[in-house]
């Protein structure tokens, strides 16, 4: 039994030795093949032998020259158009330039669902409920017609520097402008049910007269070749955002004969308030490029948005009061609010780029999906008109604004012509 086990161990040792030697031989063979592929040997062409009809002894015989095919140039400094080994992913993608400066400018259009309107409906309703604690019987503000998506016009500008198509620095500015006005309203409508002191009514609570959002981006990107036509890498964006809203408030209520001041109509006939936001943040992202043709490239960038800052609302609201004896008066009240605000979400940019010589034409889309929250919201509408007679934006502390997040979305389609300047071993061209 012992001898049998010993023989089995010998056989196993011999078998393992044979397997190890086989793996070593196969590995060496594969390595040699890879080396041959990387550095192909150049075989001289065989000369064609020509037999002369007559040999002249006084003439020295011609020396036959052997033509040798030179190996393809592999010097990375040689222009790509003169290279024959353009087979690696970076060479396929890069195409000539070492340094590039590109300037683009263009315009676009799209749709906007602004947070300044989306927050109005639920906030005014909850604020009117809170008012019942201190002002029992005050009219409720129940939203029945939310704001629709609104049209925008956009202006774009960017300048970018690229090094070997891997490293990129970009400064980009995107200005989004609303295309609505007093004749093309963007507003929230409310109803106020009947109470013991007031008749039922319907009114426009908030109207957006102008929207302007400006995004400023300083991006640093690195993309690495994954395949011969695809490059992917990280990016970081030092982002600054400002938003300016010009808004007007409305309200309408009529007291019943049983009220303390009977048959009084209180109508907010208009106003002008500026709501401004200033935020900034650092946005990480992922950036990819797909080279389909020498003249056609597709780019995509996805960034995680997280910006925070301050906001303020200040303006005037004109209220008309009509009393039982048909006398009337106009009074101005002042809405004044402020606090801290934060936006979180994503920014997606898809772009197709067509290039001819140094000129390019880019067509793309930017989609922003944002949730806005208020960390602090303080303020009031100050005036001599009894606050129970009209609907105000907020009272003292905006509990309703701070309790929920508000949707803010922007979808923009754009076209941007551009021009590039290159620098490499051939200098500037």
Question: Which tags fit this structure?
Answer:
alpha+beta, 16 strands, 54% strand, 429 residues, elongated
Task: Summarize the structure in words.
- The protein has 429 residues and is an alpha+beta fold.
- It has 5 helices and 16 strands.
- It has a 10-stranded antiparallel beta barrel with strand order 1-3-4-6-8-10-11-12-13-15.
- The longest helix has 37 residues, at 2-38.
- The protein is elongated, with a radius of gyration of 37 Å.
- The N and C termini lie far apart (86 Å).
- The relative contact order is 0.14.
Strand percentage, roughly? Answer: over 45%
Average pLDDT, all residues: 81
- CA radius of gyration is 37 Å
CA-based shape:
elongated
- State the end-to-end distance: 86 Å
Instruction: List SSEs in N-to-C order.
Output: HHEHHEEEEEEEEEEEEEHEE
For the largest beta-sheet, the strand count, sense and barrel status come to:
10 strands, antiparallel, barrel
Poorly predicted regions: 1-6, 30-70, 76-83
Please provide the count of β strands: 16
The portion of residues assigned to helices is 10-25%
Helix count, per DSSP?
5
Arrangement of strands in the largest sheet:
1-3-4-6-8-10-11-12-13-15
Q: Label the structural class.
A: alpha+beta
Summarize the structure.
The protein has helices at 2-38, 89-94, 115-118, 120-134, 399-403, and strands spanning 99-113, 142-145, 150-163, 167-178, 187-192, 201-222, 224-225, 230-249, 251-254, 265-293, 296-322, 328-356, 359-382, 396-397, 406-424, 427-428. The protein contains 5 helices and 16 strands.
